[in-house]
Amino acid sequence: MVSRVLVPMDDSEMAREALEYALSEHPAAEITVLHVVGGPSPMMGAAASVALSEEFEENAREHANVVFDRAREIAEDYDREIDTELAFGNAARAIVEHAEGFDTVVIGTHSGSLSDRLFTGNVAEKVFRRCPVPVTTVR
Question: What Gene3D superfamilies does the record point to (predicted)?
Fold first, then answer.
């Protein structure tokens, strides 16, 4: 029996569908929504990275709260409550690391722009290949 489900979520439609799937298919499970924010990159250059890092965490938390508020609205439609967590860094790596301690991960596919997918790779595919627990992909 699945008792703990991790649902990585951004502001994409596929992430919302993954949360809806998790809520409907695992009605007795504790659902945790994880939002991952990438940090300033060395590719931006040292000066840009330092300038961005001063307000980065505050801006990231504000954006995460928008995602979490939307997730809570979805959960309310199912008469459920969810837990939320914010992580920083590489999305696939953070999801895989957070997956330990959960019974399964439910993740949407094809989020992000085409350039994001080409540059960073498909997060869902990386999670699927590396995750220590079963992964359900929703499309």
Answer: HUPs (3.40.50.620)
Is pTM beyond 0.90? Reply is: no
Distance CA 48, CA 27 (A): 45
Is residue 99 within 8 Å of residue 111, measured between CB atoms? no
Token pair, residue 129, equals 């290949």
Q: Locate 65 and state its tokens.
A: 């709260």
Q: Number of structural domains, the chain?
A: 1
76-129: per-residue pLDDT in tens? 999 999 999 999 999 999 999 999 999 999 999 875 566 555 544 588 989 999
Q: What is the mean pLDDT of residues 31-56?
A: 68
Task: Give residue 13's domain range.
Answer: 4-138
Give me the CATH number covering residue 55.
Answer: 3.40.50.620
